[in-house]
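Course assignment 3, question 2. Fill in each field.
Student: A.L.
Task: Predict the tertiary structure for the chain below.
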Amino acid sequence: MHGLLTTLGRGFKKRIGWKRLGIALSLLIIAFAITTLIRTLKGVDTGVVLIALTEIPHGRIALAALCAVGAFCTLTFYDFFALRTIGKKHVPYRIAALSSFTSYTIGHNIGATVFTGGAIRFRIYSDYGLNAIDVAKICFLSGLTFWLGNTFVLGIGMAWHPWAASAMDQLPLAINRLIGFGAIAAIGAYLVWLSSGENRRELGQNGWKVVLPSARLTLVQILIGVFDAAMLVALPEFGREQLLATLVVFRILYFVIPFGIAISILGTRELWLNVVVPWQKRRRLNEGLSAPGVVPQKVKSRQSPQPLKSRQPAQPVKTRKSQG
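Answer field:
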């Protein structure tokens, strides 16, 4: 079985390759994302949108837009933090921001975030030498950042205002408050576990192993997730006069507009890498060959065998005269 998988893997790398697969997945995701965006826009009533925009003060809409921008800016540090944690310091921040923004935005809108986000990340990071295992580590650390921050915020919220949670889960106030303190205690125990060992904590074995951030870096993780959650909580707080208008504006600011921007960025990048760049290379090559004084190199032909030199006539062998 192992030999069969090895043979199939070699054939895949030789005939298709990871780069072609990444391009195909990226184009497929872009096409599906455009279809999803079109369906989303078809279900939007423009009259409701106009009413929502007229009834909500423009200052609050602008402030809500700033909160959305702040939330997405925070998302860019998820991948950047993960890249630095696994030692991929040669990947610049702009690439981490591109990968994080497009993967999260498209994944949240079309679903299957693990698959779509991972495929988009692999397509972008593969140009910088990262493999599938590296992308899996980035996805894991980014998810860890998200859940640490949101668990911390949720724990504080349920401990401080348990009645807000009781309105949704229908549990007694004491139980919700206990859940909140339990979440905070779990994060505290995780920090103690990270700082108790002499070396950095690791998860995984064999070919897949990820080094967890230290306790100090984990606090940075929590801070990043807390800021992201704070922006999301603050966003729907504006325009409470009408819940429907607030939901419509929230949907447009946090989903529709970023979704369109992400599709445009990802599509433009694929067009640039697969159409514009190869065309520029061919143009430069043609200009170089057509320049005066440039002679294209000919293919060296096989050298014909050298003609054999005529052999010298053999000298007669002198024999001693027989003595009489």
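Instructor remarks: The chain has eleven helices and two strands. The mean pLDDT is 76.
Grade: pending
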